[in-house]
Amino acid sequence: MNAASTLLIVAGLFLLGGVFSFHRQGMPRGVVVLLGIGSGLCLLAGALRLEV
């Protein structure tokens, strides 16, 4: 696992935590969806960069 994939996965997990937090706070649905899409893309990019 290289540094770039690690950073992308950590950023994706951080954003995923923000999705749950924003949803519990009652933020607008568009903000939560946009944050969720960003989280998913970070996790996907990190998984694709793994050297397995």
Question: Can I get a quick summary?
Answer:
This protein has 2 helices and no strands. The chain is mainly alpha-helical and about 50 residues long.
Please bin the fraction of helical residues: over 70%
Distance between the termini: 8 Å
Overall pLDDT level: 94
User: What is the element string, with H for helices and E for strands?
Assistant: HH
Low-confidence runs: none
Largest sheet: none
Shape: elongated
How many helices?
2
* Beta-strand proportion: under 5%
Q: What is the SS-derived class?
A: mainly alpha
Structural account:
By secondary structure, this protein is mostly helical. Helix content is 83%, strand content 0%. It contains two helices and no strands. The chain is elongated and about 40 Å long. The mean pLDDT is 94.
Question: What labels describe this entry?
Answer:
52 residues, mainly alpha, 2 helices
